[in-house]
Specification:
Layout (H helix, E strand, L loop, with lengths): L17 H14 L4 H6 L3 H16 L6 H15 L2 H13 L4 H5 L12 H14 L7 H8 L4 H24 L10
Length: 184
């Protein structure tokens, strides 16, 4: 991570409790470096532990087959919140799931792009409505969402969007940079 780009320095891994050092070491082995946000979450160890559990629940343990939609929604929310790190990470995830570069690039114009299904469009519009705090999720939008997704899937999608909003706003506030995961 480049010094001076973030608003505060990341935590020194050596000062972390053992369990968090192990988590950061696992990330280093998998990704080549600890994931940048975790170096800031680690400033408050209980938060990092909770974030790790929430991330696992929303990203790894979800059972509704939302992997591709999750990556697209997360990328869209990250873009709306100006989070460079999350945009990169979720574009990489979408790409690994087989989403084309053209479709990832078209997220900013999803409403008019022929690359998105009606179900994807309504989910992305829902994400926009939740993310834009001056907006409301009106009954008409929610009814369109219900035409494509059952109640449990809507609940999961809502939590995915809410968590991504929290994560990307946290990262953006500290100006946590991209880690270069997505290569076109």
């Amino acid at each position: 991570m480049q010094d001076g780009k973030t608003r505060i320095p990341p935590v020194d891994v050596e000062t972390c409790p053992d369990d968090l050092r192990e988590t950061l070491e696992e990330q280093r082995k998998l990704w080549g470096a600890p994931l940048y946000p975790y170096l800031f979450y680690a400033r408050h160890p209980p938060y990092l532990r909770a974030a790790k559990k929430m991330w696992a629940a929303l990203q790894e343990e979800a059972a509704r087959g939302l992997d591709t939609l999750r990556a697209l929604v997360n990328r869209r929310v990250a873009w709306s919140n100006g989070c460079e790190y999350c945009q990169d990470a979720h574009a990489a995830k979408a790409s690994r799931l087989g989403v084309s570069t053209d479709k990832i690039d078209a997220l900013n114009d999803y409403a008019r792009s022929p690359l998105f299904s009606e179900a994807e469009r309504v989910a992305l519009e829902y994400a926009d409505a939740i993310t834009e705090t001056r907006c409301d999720v009106d009954d008409e939008l929610f009814a369109r969402l219900q035409r494509h997704y059952d109640d449990d899937t809507i609940a999961e999608l809502t939590m995915i969007i809410a968590w991504q909003n929290a994560s990307s706003r946290f990262n953006h506030a500290f100006r946590i940079p991209s880690q270069g995961f997505w290569t076109r």
